[in-house]
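Field notebook, page 250. I keep forgetting to write these up properly, so this time I am using the form the group agreed on. The chain and the ligand, adenosine monophosphate, are recorded exactly as supplied. Prediction of the bound pose follows.
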Amino acid sequence: MSEKNERAAWIGGPKMQCATKAANPGRSFRMVLLGAPGVGKGTQAEMLCERLGTCQLSTGDVFRAAKCMDESQLSPAMVHALGYMQRGELVPDDTVIDMVKERIGCLKCQNGFLLDGFPRTASQAGALDQMLASLGLKLDAVLNFELPLEQVVERLGGRRTCQSCKTTFHVVSKPPQVDGICDRCGGTLYTREDDRPESIRVRLQAYEDSTKPLVEYYAKAGTLVSVSADGAPGKVFENCMEELRKRMDV
Ligand code: AMP
């Protein structure tokens, strides 16, 4: 297996082990990150996991990792899913839910978990509720990142991602030191297929139609925590921590 395929197979695959350290021994945090594409959920997920020691599961990362694999190694459902991703559409619920069920070990991580990009529809939210109920677990918080639409479009259009380490840059607000090269690992920067203008439109519509209603769903459940996503990642992270501190010991 090539190095790329090995990495893809590892992410969330049978060999998955939680690599997080117990930053808060004895504490666990079970959270979901909500928000339009481009608000910075991935970056915040990394920072929160680093601080809280939770296990991170990003469904978008799992699909992107599968994209690096030879098609012959993927299930038909996964091959089908990648077509949706490429067009910026949501992958069908059954496929996403099955994929998360395969990774249910993440939900049982002793330091808790942080779900980035799941759930994205009412049906996925229902499935998550059922999975958690079957494990006797409850969500502590659903962080909803808020950002005006113009800023979302601007962020997605200018985003460049490292092919190797997945660090993201922005052509205006966070340019790399050398054009097209990752500051962190020297990898090549590229524009994700779903960050192209035609896919951005589809993704934002999918967010409006399917994901935004979850804000109401979690508000009713009493777990919603609204966070402003305006500003640099460090500032947004502080906003998160401040909002979380109001409701739990973080
Ligand atoms: P993300 O990086 O979270 O924006 O996800 C990238 C793409 O993966 C999305 O545009 C969808 O095509 C697919 N995807 C990721 N998570 C989900 C999900 N929970 N439900 C449906 N599609 C998803």
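OBSERVATIONS:
- The longest strand covers residues 29-35.
- Residues 37, 59-60, 63, 84-85, 88-91, 96, 117-118, 120, 124, 194, 203 surround adenosine monophosphate (CB under 6 Å).
FOLLOW-UP: compare against the apo run.
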